[in-house]
Amino acid sequence: MRDWLLQRSWNALLGAVLLASVVFNIAQSDGYLSINNFVNLFELSIEKIIVVVAMTFVIVAGEIDLSVASVMGFAACVMASLHERSGLPFWLILLVTLVVSALIGLIQGLIITLLELPSLVVTLAGLIAWRGAARILVEDRSVGQYPDWFNSMGQDDLIGPLPFAILLFVGVLALGAVLLHRTVVGRYLYVIGDKPDVARYSGVRVDRVRTSLFVASSTVAGLAGILFAARLGTARADLAYGFELEIITIVLLGGVSIFGGSGRMSGVALAILIVLNVRNGLGLAGVDGSTQVGVIGVILIASVLVQNALGRVTARRQRQQANAELAAVASTA
Amino acid sequence: MKSRTIRIAALVAAASLFIAACGSDDDADTATTEAASGSEPAATEPAGTEPAGTEAPAGTEAPAGTDAAASDTTADSGAAATGDVVAIEADGDFNALLLPKCTGNAVFDQANEGAIEAAGELGAADPQFSAPASCADTTGQIEFVTNAVTQGVDAIMISNNAGDQVQTAVDDADAAGIPVVAWDSPIPSGQGEDLFVAQVDFDETGVVMADMALNILGDDGGQFAILSATPDAANQNAWIAAMEEALTSDPKYASLELVDTVYGNDDADESYNQALALVDSNPDLELIMAPTTVGIAAAAKAMQDEGLCETVKVSGLGLPDEMRDFTTAGCAPEFALWSFVDLGYLTYYAAYGIAKGQIEAAEGTSFEAGRMGEYTIEKDPTRDNGLRIVMGPFSVYNADNL
Hints:
Chain A is mostly helical and 333 residues long. In chain A, 78% of the residues lie in helices and 3% in strands. The longest helix of chain A has 44 residues, at 289-332.
């Protein structure tokens, strides 16, 4: 109940920030209010966004996956190198790439659950290892020349002015929200994130759920890597380099606790829109990259501070309420 | 309650200052590491320079490249433009984006200075100077190009960091009728790009390095070694190949003996250690030639730290600001680089002329760019499909002009 209240005021705050950034953008740039710009807004970050949704699940369960960006790069390079060296049909290559990504998640998940190692360490190792593996696969080159349908999947409009990216954004977000808030697995994740022992004693197969979580995370990362390669028309070993931090930033900004057990998909959706809008607005205003990164950093720090303050206020209010009730009970007795 | 709100506000303010400070720190860091990649740009495609390399030695005198270029263009423009040189003139305001590979890199800031100088002369506003925060973010430029198209800028001047990944964004700019002028590092396919302003001719780089080696070692010559960036850095490899070509083709370099080529991966520590290893394994070594700004500074530092400056000199491509102390101390008596200020200046003039319709981005077009003088657009021999002008020349730095 308390979490829910907290999340609601948090979402209200995010909504206000989003509104402010939209107003700022409209005032600042003529080009902002064009359909093209809104399409670009999503298209330029769609790969990141779908990984954000997967990362929300991971963090809600009290874990972290630092390897996602490296897995994106590795998956793109697996695809590229299969395309270059094997004569397989391209759809099969994509399938193999996704299976490879899932296997990566399985390996990492099993190491974390069987050896009881922290996911922070295991996926940090993954971050380094899979990026290295990507470099071994395609070296310092960029591999292109994919089938036309593949490139157009990342680049062309699908329905009217709407590209695949926006439809995917809406689809992934809706699917994420339903899975997290309307299914048993979603409930398990919250319990595991909050009190893993309670989950275990209640008969939840904690390790199995955790392992599947990392399989899902890596598979989604692999898909994102493929989509990124489709948008760029080429794959390189440094694809998506450094994305993990921005992805985790958005999830935390969405009000998901880094300690697990709380947060809602609606907050994450708002956070995505805020980050996209702020970056787009600053970009259109001609602000350079370092300042953009700085502004997003300030928003994150501010959000953590406000979240902390909100938590205290709610806690105090509840305490006061409890005291008042206690006093009332005492006086009647 | 109220005091808590104030406290939180103060904290937020402090945090933002802190972050802003850290942000610029990071940039300073990347500036040194990326300094070399500032020169790496043309990297991706110069692999194809080899054919041009073979005809270069003919004109070994000095600017082999420019000679060849000049003869090329006279042949072409003789028929086409009959030597009409268009002087680019002030013609109203101009809102352009100067997009380097990343911010916080000294050489790109210099290019911006040059562009601002040109803008002042043409009576236009300073260009927008923005870029991704880190050169490691190779796809970050895509967003900047896309946003510039949305803004409806008059021209985009890009030092391409994304290889051919930036292609779709450049195509969008092209479709929107926005001229794209590449500088420092071109769009590999040449598509959507109106013109590439090349810093120097790659063959000339080899000759300049050979000349510096000869100057430093004297007519008696001696042994030297090359400390490069990464083994697969295409621009460095092209420059080294051009130098080897010059060494074998011109008898005046006969006394120079290249004994080893090693790679410091453009990492200061690694380059430092590689430089010391070179000295250990080659007792008669007299010179280390480093065609990378990271390598040359690291090698000079290594020689200075070990007190070896009297026996082993350092030369190559370096940034004057980073090399000044080593040059005055005699560790690196001579090194070369092109002027990034001039590169920014020339790029701005070219973009202005093309965007205003004063010149056509076509082979054989000649134009005059302010204080830089005349240039003629030619086919880019390093790419299948692209036009370029070659800025040149090298600036050779020594204790006299630093």
